[in-house]
Amino acid sequence: MDVEELAIVAALLIIKRKTNKKKSKEYWVHPLLEERRSKGMFKIFYEDVRKYPRKFFNYARMSVSSFDVLFCLLKPHITGIDTNMRPCISPEEKLFITLRYLGSGCKFVDLHYSYRLGISTISEIIREVCHFIWVVLKDMCLPQPTKENWLKIAKDFHLRANFPNCIGAVDGKHVRIIKPYNSGSLCYNYKHFFSVILLAICDSDYKFIYIDVGSYGKDCDSTIFTNSTFYQKLMNNDLQIPEPKPISSTNPIPVPFVIVGDEAFGQTDKIMRPFGGSNLTTKKKIFNYRLSRARRHIECSFGILANKWQIFHRPINVNLDLVSCIIKTCCALHNYVRERDGYKFEDTLSIPGFEEVPNGFQRATRRGASYRDVFADYFTTEGQLSWQMSSIN
Q1: Strand 271-272 relative to strand 258-260: parallel, antiparallel, unpaired?
Q2: Closest CA to 70 of 134, 126, 154, 23
Q3: Please, which contacts does 4-11 make with residues 24 or more away whose CB atoms are closer than 8 Å?
Q4: Residues pairing with 31 in the sheet
Q5: Distance CA 179, CA 315 (A)
Q6: Mode of pairing for the β-strands spanning 208-216 and 195-202
Q7: How far apart are CA 19 and CA 12, in angstroms?
Q8: What does the alpha-carbon distance between residue 74 and residue 89 come to, in Å, rounded to a whole number?
Q9: Secondary structure (3-state) at 356
């Protein structure tokens, strides 16, 4: 290539750069957004909807009183500073927008048009408010249980699920996401979509005791659980779990307090899972039925979570770190609203948006298997239920 050809190529490159140069902004602030303070959704809707508690609950997914308490907790953390250019967005509007996003599963662009805020501004609001909801509520709504708390959880499981010495039910679910940038196949699961995993333990009141968020979609329940900090503390006896006690008045053998799970979890003296196989004896079938009565509480908890916070009804299309923050926030809000406003029974019947996590292979320990036999014997003798035989036939 001679000098003339090089000059021509250079000239063409300059012309191309000029034509591709980013156009200057048409508006400093778009006229549609300039009218936010007079025509935005928060201005025209917020005060009116507060007058109708049922409508407010349906829109914000919590009662007016719960909203006000949460707002007071968050206000010091999410209040901005006014500048000479423009006043900041009020913390009340930030919280209202975030709850609508989490509760409806709408997209940023929908909030952009209804609240007359820039899409990037909406994104920053969601990130900021979710972060501080988790910071403020995690110790309040997801504290590490004390010995007295464990005993109360066990008492409630015995009362509601007829399973003694049970201190929780564990399971994991896939949360659908849009493929994260440059993530390869890490989040691609066996169901052929992209996800991260929410692993949770709940009590008999459908509230979460522990959550583990952010594991890749390719992982299985047992791997996530055994790698969690909760499992390490459980194995090291660092959770203030009470000492074993007998479950039978005739058998004095002390039985440890256990967490119930499905086949994905290894059978140990601290984890109870069902007997495997198809040709089971009556005693084993009864044990599996009784365990399922306790384990269904985690399934119902996921149902309440997904039906309340409908962000889980569609693939979440944000950065991976924000996905984890959103899931943790929803779990904290789940406990917060569950404690203050209760739940609807219908929400426990389906789990829209969540998918089961595949089972891993975990061998049962001899000690764990022996304790499972103690439970099975108890369920067919003095601990039997009048309807359990009809339920397994």
Answers
A1: parallel
A2: 134
A3: none
A4: none
A5: 9
A6: antiparallel
A7: 11
A8: 14
A9: strand
Q: Which of 319, 102, 311, 297 is nearest to 214 (CA)?
A: 319
Side-chain-side CA neighbours of 74 within 13 Å: the count stands at 29
pLDDT beneath 70, residues of the chain? 1-28, 221, 358-363
> Judging by DSSP bridges, how do beta strands 166-176 and 258-260 pair with one another?
parallel
Q: Is 338 in contact with 207 (CB distance < 8 Å)?
A: yes
Q: Which of 271, 257, 169, 256 is nearest to 226 (CA)?
A: 271
- Secondary structure of residue 391 in the 3-state scheme: helix
Q: Collapsing DSSP states into helix, strand and coil, what is residue 286?
A: helix
Instruction: Kindly state the tokens that stand for 80.
Output: 């901005």
SS3 state at 31: helix
Where would I find the H helices in the chain? 3-20, 31-34, 36-39, 41-49, 53-60, 64-78, 91-104, 108-115, 119-141, 147-161, 221-227, 229-235, 282-308, 320-341, 366-379, 388-392
Q: What is the pLDDT of residues 35-69, one digit of tens each?
A: 888 888 999 999 999 999 999 999 999 999 999 99
The torsion angles phi and psi of 40, rounded to 5 degrees, stand at -70, 160
User: What is 243-273 written as a DSSP string?
Assistant: PPB-S-SS----B--EEE--TTS---SSEE-
Angle, helices 53-60 vs 91-104, to 10°: value is: 70
pLDDT of the residue at 28: 65
- The answer for residues whose C-beta is within 8 angstroms of residue 89's C-beta and 6 or more apart is 80, 117, 121, 125
Cα-Cα end-to-end distance for the chain: 86
Among residues 212, 202, 220, 211, the alpha carbon closest in space to that of 304 is found at: 202
| Three-point CA angle 83, 85, 88, nearest 5° | 50
pTM: 0.88
**How far out from the chain centre does Cα 369 lie?**
31
Retrieve residue 60's tokens. Answer: 């914000």
Q: What is the DSSP string of 117-137?
A: --HHHHHHHHHHHHHHHHHHH
